[in-house]
Amino acid sequence: MAGLYRFGISLEKALIDAFDRHIAAQRYKNRSEAIRDLIREALTRRKFAQGGVVAGAIIMTYDHHKRALVDKLLDIQHDFQSLIISTQHVHLDHHHCLEIVAVRGRAREIEKLAYSIKSLVGVKQVGVSIATAGR
Ligand code: NI
Asked: What is the CATH number of domain 53-132?
């Protein structure tokens, strides 16, 4: 692979043993892959904290029988239309819906959208999962 760099890391035995158990449980093929992921996660978290552009998903569960909730959710999603790439709706049971909103944009805007959804009566839980936008 072009542009691949190697470097050594010094760690305490207990820490490397714990790391090896962790990467075996996560089914990594080798330490390099696991460390690469840790670095990417740290950089994405930093980018998110600094308000950079990230991709991600807002996951919510709500009771669609709550008065006007679906209309409010749709209004909010239209307000943040430039942020939203796609949505997936799943009917969990007679009352509950699961919705996954894929987003790409500034971290602060993603947070604003998540907070707007969280504030609605009938929304049971909202989670935000962040990934690199690719750059
Ligand atoms: Ni539904």
From this structure: 3.30.70.1150
Tell me the C-alpha to C-alpha distance, in Å, between residue 102 and each of 52, 58, 98, 115, 132.
Answer: 17, 7, 13, 15, 13
Q: How far is the CA of 95 from the centre of ligand 1 (A)?
A: 8
Between the CA of 2 and the centroid of ligand 1 the distance, in Å, is 48
Q: Is the dihedral of CA 6, 133, 29, 3 positive or negative?
A: negative
Residue 102 CA, chain-centre distance (Å), reads 9
Ligand 1 center–CA 107 separation, angstroms: 27
Per-residue confidence at 44, pLDDT binned at 50, 70, 90? confident
Global pTM value: 0.76
Spell out the domain ranges in the chain.
13-49, 53-132
Q: In what order do the strands lie in the sheet with 123-132?
A: 84-91, 96-106, 53-63, 123-132
Ligand 1 centre and the CA of 112: distance in Å? 23
Q: State residue 4's pLDDT score.
A: 87
Predicted local confidence at residue 1, as pLDDT: 57
Q: Which pLDDT band holds residue 97 (cuts at 50, 70, 90)?
A: very high
